[in-house]
Amino acid sequence: MNNNQNETSRSAEGYDIPAVETWIAANTDYFKPPFSWTRLEGGHSNLTYRLEDASGKRAVIRRPPMGELLPKAHDMNREWSLIAAFAPQGFPVPEPIGFCEDLSVTGALFYVMGFSEGRPLFSNEDTLAWVPETQRTTLAYSFIDTLADMHVLDPDAIGLSALGKKEDYVGRQIKAWYRSWESSIAYAELDDPRAHDFKDYFLVHQPEQVRASVVHGDYYLHNCLFAQDSKVSAVLDWELATLGDPLADLGYTLRAWPESADDPHLEPTAPTAVPGFPFRAELAQRYAERTGFSVDLLDYYVGFNNWKTAAILHGVYARYRAGQKSTEGVDMDGLREGILKALNGAERAIQRLA
Question: Is the pTM of this model over 0.85?
Answer without folding.
Answer: yes
